[in-house]
Amino acid sequence: MKFLLEVTMDDAALVKDPAGELGRILRYWGGNVRHYALSPGDGAAIYDSEYREVGRWHVADQTE
Questions:
Q1: What is the distance of C-alpha 55 from the center of its chain?
Q2: CA–CA separation, 50 vs 45, rounded Å?
Q3: Predicted model pTM
Q4: Which of 9, 31, 35, 46 could connect to 55 by a Cys-Cys bridge, CB 3.0–4.6 Å?
């Protein structure tokens, strides 16, 4: 199994403060994963501080 997190870094909030915004995203989703079983197929959209979708995380089989 793999945990995959992909964030598009050319979003407005990420361009303005890449380290700060990415840190916020990682803290938020790091704390939020406890609400998921973390089985293959689980996942969710990732939003920046302005609530724009900037990526996605998901759990994949090792074959992906």
A1: 6
A2: 14
A3: 0.79
A4: 46
* ∠ CA 58-60-64, rounded to 5°: 125
Whether 43 and 57 have beta carbons less than 8 Å apart is answered as yes
**Residue 49: domain span:** 2-60
CA distance linking residue 20 with residue 43, whole number of Å: 23
pLDDT digits 0-9 by tens, 20-63: 999 999 999 888 889 999 999 999 999 988 899 999 999 999 87
How many Cβ atoms from other residues are within 10 Å of residue 15's Cβ? 10
In whole angstroms, give the CA distance from residue 45 to residue 32: 12
CB of 1 closer than 8 Å to CB of 60: yes
